[in-house]
Amino acid sequence: MFAAIIIKYVSWLRALPKSDLVLLGKGLVSPQTMMAIWEVVCESLLHRRIFRINKRLGYMHMSLAFGWFLLIVVGWAETVAYLGARWVPLQGHVFFKYFAALNGINTHIAIFDFVMDLLLMFVLSGVALAWYKRRNSAKLGMKRATQHIFFDKIALTALWFVFPVRLIAESITAAIYGGGGFLTGGIGKLLSMVVSDNILEWAYEPIWWIYSLALGVFFMAMPFSRYMHIFTEIPLIFLRHYKLRPQDKEKSYDNFEVEACSRCGICIDPCQLQQQLGIHDVQSVYFLRDRRYNMLQQKIAHNCLMCGRCEQVCPVGINLNTLRLNSRTSMRNIPNEGRYNYLRGKDYSMGEGRVGYFAGCMTLLTPNTLHAMEKIFTAARENVWWADKDGGVCCGRPMKLTGETDSAQNMMDFNKRLFKQHDITTLVTSCPICLRVFREEYNLEGIEVLHHSEYILRLIQQGRLRIKYNAEQTFTYHDPCELGRGSGIYEEPRAVIEAIGKLLETEHNRKNALCCGSSLANTVIDDKQQLSIATNVAEEMDSTGAKTLVTACPLCKKAIARGTRSKVVDLSEIVAGNLR
Amino acid sequence: MINFGFSISRPRVIDIDRNNLNKSKEIIAEMPELQACIGCGSCTATCTAGNLTEYNFRKVHTLVRRGEYQGAYEELNKCMLCGKCRLVCPRGINTRGVIMLIKRKLGDF
């Protein structure tokens, strides 16, 4: 087992690109290493993050991981205590009770017996919960649990058997030879009263064999099953502290993230494709599994809204969206082939000003937003350079989301050159999709990129926009995925709305916000399915009782408007409509 | 042949009996919704790429369905996949999916 794991890690590390190795080298002798060690304790042993998501699941995982860890450590200490000061391997305790009894060590140190039994009970409680969860996951706060493949089931079964069998084996040992703490000793006494000595003697060997086999099967299966996460999370935490991240294209580091997935299935519940559409084979847990075993299909990789709701709850903190994106890239990217040569020399921009406004494709499709922005710019007396009012080039993110990274780069280069040419210092966009790619991929040094919600709020704070406040007006706000989880902008749009009227929050808001369903990342679901998600989102917004549904993304606006009869507007529209 | 100084344009008839419709059938089998197209041209009217160059999605997918694959892949390469066509399609056709599918069938994905 250890050989397999070490071979895997070493080959992955060797395959890391140079830039990553540099990061690794720099990080190794920095405080980051200490912080990583602390995080390993918190996460790999105590599982703090799962606790935050769900206490019962947290306890289950912690009792198994931390409990087992302590069993090994205390067991080792016990073995050392018995055998005296000599070198004992860490696994020395596994069959200690068996051999100790055979070799006539009959003295017992009560404190060890007690602690070991306590720990065993701790672990067993976790196993019991795990058993229960398989039968009724809803009771533990998971509406749907992962459907495991056959191989995982073998490893899982072996793991479940390890501890109950150990309990029986130690109890029988205690029954025959005495000793044992309150648990094994107690059961042992009971057994020796009820069952005859002959049977106990007869069962002694087989039960220890079963225990040994269960352990063996589990450890053999571990590097190739979901349980690889037990060890992989540790190097992952270190590498993450050294600032290694997955990128547009697959690289060796991704292996650490892919195999650190424990297939716990926490990502399944928040997925709207699952909740709303009943699609059960595309969630991150299945995606990572398929990718790991090289059986990923385009259909699965592309059937995802990339809303980031699963990433939000992943207890291992895997960059699920980025991994999916670079899988798509591996499947579809073709070398840059000059397909956008027709862009050369095109420039449809107009106006002069240090502030640039990039509407983006979707805003051009929602002219109300565009007109509202025009009104706002006029009211604030801002000179604006309109990048694409009369048609422009897409920001490149939609193309990138389908995996054609190199082609998308063409469009990005074009737009970047355009921005530089016109010498702007601020770039405002009303489309969160564009915003995200401008911030993350464009490297626009010297140009401040703002979403229109940030820009409008700034105008209000500077007193350049004067707005009528009317408490009678009620609004509810939908967090667009790319703006909220994608770019971390939650409060600015809310502040703008609260300057105009009363804001009523939806049930899922901010980090837990729902996706409108029309996400450009998904090219598989059809119109009806999109509409079904949109209707669900719109219903939730309507249930707040607000008169107007507000969002800050032209795509979300179009999507949600299809799902309701209420008025759906962009943030800029309510601002433009309430100017003084 | 006598050279009159001009030639006759090649006939532009699409002979469906002669064309190899295998790819077309595969495409329609994977995305039957494409048959719901009424040819309104909204996709083309709103197209970001079509605004900058000669590119007509309606024409391309119609030709492909009739088995005229020549040049379709290169033509679809002009697309920026921005997704406006999908939003305006009155029949709710997943146009981005269609473009990716045709490219996959005709290209080397």
- In what range is the share of β-strand residues of chain B? under 5%
Q: What's the number of helices of chain B?
A: 6
**The number of domains of chain B:** 1
Give the overall average pLDDT of chain A.
88
**How large is the radius of gyration of chain A?**
30 Å
According to CATH, the fold-level topology of chain B is: Fumarate Reductase Iron-sulfur Protein, Chain B, domain 2
- Strand element count of chain B: 0
Largest sheet report of chain B? none
Q: What is the CA–CA distance across the termini of chain B? A: 45 Å
Number of helices of chain A: 27
* Domain count of chain A: 4
CATH superfamily of chain B: Alpha-helical ferredoxin
Oligomer: heterodimer
- Roughly how many Å is the radius of gyration of chain B? 16 Å
Low-confidence segments of chain A, given as residue ranges, are none
Q: Please report which band the strand proportion of chain A falls in: under 5%, 5-15%, 15-25%, 25-35%, 35-45% or over 45%.
A: 5-15%
Provide the low-confidence segments of chain B as ranges. Answer: none
Can you give a write-up of this model?
The complex is a heterodimer of chains A (580) and B (109). Chain A is mainly alpha-helical and 580 residues long. Chain A has 4 domains: 2-229, no CATH class; 250-331, Fumarate Reductase Iron-sulfur Protein, Chain B, domain 2, CATH 1.10.1060; 342-459, Rossmann fold (3-Layer(aba) Sandwich); 467-577, Rossmann fold. Chain A has 27 helices and 8 strands. Chain A has helices spanning 2-14, 18-28, 31-45, 48-53, 55-83, 96-102, 110-135, 150-177, 184-194, 197-221, 229-241, 253-259, 272-277, 284-292, 298-302, 309-313, 320-332, 360-365, 367-379, 397-401, 405-421, 432-441, 452-461, 491-500, 527-542, 554-562, 571-577, and strands at 355-358, 384-386, 426-429, 448-451, 474-478, 502-504, 548-551, 567-570. In chain A, the strands form 2 sheets. Chain A has a 4-stranded parallel β-sheet with strand order 2-1-3-4. In chain A, β7 (548-551), α26 and β8 (567-570) form a beta-alpha-beta unit. In chain A, α5 (55-83) runs antiparallel to α7 (110-135), α7 runs antiparallel to α8 and α8 packs antiparallel against α10. The radius of gyration of chain A is 30 Å and the shape is elongated. The model of chain A has no long low-confidence stretch (mean pLDDT 88). The mean pLDDT of chain B is 90. Chain B is an all-alpha fold and 109 residues long. In chain B, α1 packs antiparallel against α6 (95-106). Chain B is 41% helix and 0% strand. Chain B starts with 21 loop residues before the first helix and ends with a helix. Chain B is globular. Chain B contains 6 helices and no strands. Chain B has a single domain (22-106), classed as Alpha-helical ferredoxin (Fumarate Reductase Iron-sulfur Protein, Chain B, domain 2), CATH 1.10.1060.10. In chain B, 34% of the residues are buried. Chains A and B meet through α18 and α25 of A and α5 and α6 of B.
